[in-house]
Amino acid sequence: MEIWLVTYGPGEVSWQRFGHNAIWVRDEATGLDHVFNFGFFDFEQEAFYRRFLQGKLLYFSAAQPAQQEFSQYINENRSIRAQRLILSEDQSLKLAEYLLVEIRPENRDYLYDYFTNNCSTRIRDALDLALDGALSGAFSDQAAQQNWRDHTRRLTAADFWLYLGLELGLGSPIDHGISRWEEFFIPSELAAAVADFEIGGRAGRRALVAEDVMLYESSLEPPPLKPVAWWPRYLLLSSLVLGVAWLICRLLPAVSAFGLVRGWLLLSALAGGILVYFWFFTDHLAARNNLNLLLLNPLWLFVFWNQPRLVAWLLMATSGLAGIAALIPGGQYNLDAAAMILPLNIAAALVLLKTGRD
Fold it and tell me: Where are the domains of the chain?
């Protein structure tokens, strides 16, 4: 029986940005030649969008013939890396039996969490089971070089709006240091660790990987190895928005700056309400303790209409706090969010103060 760790590179669709992985089992004795993975979800599942919003989305495990699966990823122009693992007969059987049990209809569903219970952490745990805890023993106490936010930023850098949406919606829980074991929520990180991993026995230590081959090379540009400072592009966008708003007010006398500010504060208050919803009323743990509420505040809905000057000073104060927080190392990284939202808030506050004086 051959056991291969298969790692797929990132794709162009939002949920493909982080890559994927699977375990390929080949057994001539039984004719088994299937790839097992835990990365399936179904738009037709009951209440899909409600479950997605509430952080209760169900993923499921499945197996399909290897060539069929590989063809799908090749058609998507995603790289395929395969690493053949040196396991004992007992370890291979234990892993294969575990995978076959996991794809049974009564066992296949699981409650997905992007950082702690995803397709890659499930593969990690399956390999650790076969290796009698050797992986977790080696990596649980080893500090990772990058945390959950670092990996999220670098892997979504090519998607302008996905990157910004995640930066606005994800709170401080993803900014703390993590272990190398936790870092294996990224398939490529697990593949890199396995490539260098050695297991010991009475006969000494040996490499876990016997072969490491690329079955398909993608033509897509690989993501950066580390997060890049993307805040200037969001500062440029907010500057362009302010420039367009100024032109509209100059060229269309019927449109007032106060009216545009009212529209912006309504939009930002609604966005802040969404942040509150994800923080307090869902199971999205990564969306809690979100400092971006200083930038997008639902309170504007309640005080704006009759207290424009009060809102102006609140905008100045909260935006200032958010700007300071963006410069403090070790806390929630929100420099991109501040670059996008803070200039709009300051401009809105200045308009409101002028309106109050007039």
Answer: 2-144+179-216, 231-357
